[in-house]
Here is the input.
Amino acid sequence: QVQLVESGGGLVQTGGSLRLSCAASGIIFSVNAMGWYRQAPGKQRELVAVISSGGGTNYVDSVKGRFTISRDNAKNTAYLQMNSLKPEDTAVYYCNAKILPLGVKYESDYWGRGTQVSVSS
Here is the structure.
């Protein structure tokens, strides 16, 4: 079955960096748009960054200039490079992807289980 697995979270100090990875596995025909969301305690989940199959990107204003989303289509993997981290970035980060499994007519939304990012002041 198709699934997404995130990795790379951890605890860093303000100004530090982390690189998150999201790997799609299973019998897949294509992986279309991929994105990263985050959810802090007591807050709604928000879109952080998204990347299209062609490489076009969009970011939430609060991370522009600090975060970079990328993808390796050959590996069905998305990355989120996070630099100059702030305490406000502390959240569980979730990977999302539009995936068309092999033999299926329509793509579906898939979510990873999340990886914790904590930034100390």
